[in-house]
Every structure is written in structure tokens, then in C-alpha cells.
Amino acid sequence: AMDIADKDKEIIFLQDQITALKNKAELV
């Protein structure tokens, strides 16, 4: 169960990073 939770946190973190990059790209 712990491993799955960690994976979910990793995925959410990566999705946030991708969203931030997309926002920066749109501003440029």
C-alpha cells in the first residue's frame, strides 16, 4: 500500500511539473 501511495505522489508531482512547463511555454 505504501508503494502505491508513493507512486501516486510521484505521478502527481510529475503532472504538476508538466503543467508548470506548459504554462511557461504559453507565456513565451
UniProtKB/TrEMBL annotation:
Name of the protein in its database record: Uncharacterized protein
Species in which this protein is naturally found: marine sediment metagenome
Species lineage: unclassified sequences, metagenomes, ecological metagenomes
